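S., here's the first fold you wanted:
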Amino acid sequence: MSFNKDRVVELPDFLHDKASNAPESGYGVVTATVILKDGRRFPNIKIAWGHQIVKYEGKTNIPFSTEDIVDIEIER
């Protein structure tokens, strides 16, 4: 998986354990839906090492920031 390391978004601290304990979809990577404060949902988000959002499928940039995130749902 390739990603733009200049555009990595950190997962909020309170979600690190949830992401770290989820089954991996690739080496060190979890796939999740990110839920924002305003209710928007972004599926197919790649979270690396339990804390870094590194890729949003089909997009060149991640369209939200750490402060916007309220939850994640792990995709199977």
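And the second, which I think is the more interesting of the pair:
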Amino acid sequence: MGAILSSGGQDVVAVSAGLLFAYSIGACVSPLLASGVMTLLDAPFGLFAFWCLVNGTFAVVTLYLRKQEKVEIVAVEDQVAFVPMKSTSPVVMSMDPRSDPEFDRS
């Protein structure tokens, strides 16, 4: 959701498609890699070792991108509170004060 908001709402479909594609690649490749790690370690904790490897990779990539300033940190005063809604309609988006009235949604 942060990726969609940081794009300014202009490329919602493209960002969603990219996230779905990344998820599908991970869903296809992860079982194969996890079973390979479990076979190499020949121990019941091989799956947990795989999870540690994946999460460690995520941590290193995140730290690298933060150092390169490609991950934007939103200041606390710029953050807005989350307000859950029971149900929505397209009219709600026009009522949102953060929405751009000039942006054509059709």
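Why I say that: Helices lie at 2-6, 12-41, 46-67, 90-95. The radius of gyration is 20 Å.

Talk tomorrow,
H.
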